[in-house]
Amino acid sequence: MIINDNIMRTPFVLCMLIYHSEYTLFMGKVLVDISVEPIGTSSTSISRYVRIAFEVLKEKGLKFYPAPSMTTIELDDLSSLGSIIKEINDRLEKEGVKRVVTIIKVDDRRDKENSIDHKLDVIKL
């Protein structure tokens, strides 16, 4: 890429180049917490359906961390989130689930590392 030397000297362009460099340097993972709740099943237990959701995540090769109420998924960007949720819902429908409520929380940190491992490392007791 050729940039005119006069343009490079303007403060705005310098700021944009610095911002772009920092953004590229710290561009980390997007952490997404999801809770998939099947409604109208024949049982109050949902562990069977949670396992189905985990199977989808494993098949996609995604890193995830299950917790009691939600699961954290590590993504390169948000663009794949919709297809992941759709695939989970489609699989649940094949198991007889007619309605699914999905709760989503997104942690899109852009100033420094953002990964499941990093988050767990910094809170070790």
Question: What are its keywords?
Answer:
single chain, 125 residues, alpha+beta, Alpha-Beta Plaits, 4-stranded antiparallel β-sheet, 22% strand, globular, disordered N terminus, UPF0045_domain, Thiamine-binding protein domain-containing protein, Thiamine_BP
Name the CATH architecture of the domain at 29-108.
2-Layer Sandwich
Q: What's the shape?
A: globular
* Radius of gyration, in angstroms, nearest whole number: 20 Å
- Count of discrete alpha- or pi-helical segments spanning 4 or more residues: 5
CATH class of the domain at 29-108 reads: Alpha Beta
Number of strands: 4
Family: Belongs to the UPF0045 family.
Protein name: Thiamine-binding protein domain-containing protein
Domain Thiamine-binding protein: 32-123
Organism: Sulfuracidifex tepidarius
Question: What does this entry look like structurally?
Answer:
The structure is a single chain. The protein is an alpha+beta fold. It has a domain at 29-108: 2-Layer Sandwich (Alpha-Beta Plaits), CATH 3.30.70.930. It is built from five helices and four strands, in the order ααβαββαβα. The chain has helices at residues 5-8, 11-26, 47-59, 81-94, 116-122, and strands at residues 30-39, 63-66, 71-75, 99-107. Strands 2-3-1-4 form a four-stranded antiparallel sheet. One of its GO terms (cellular component) is cytosol. Belongs to the UPF0045 family.
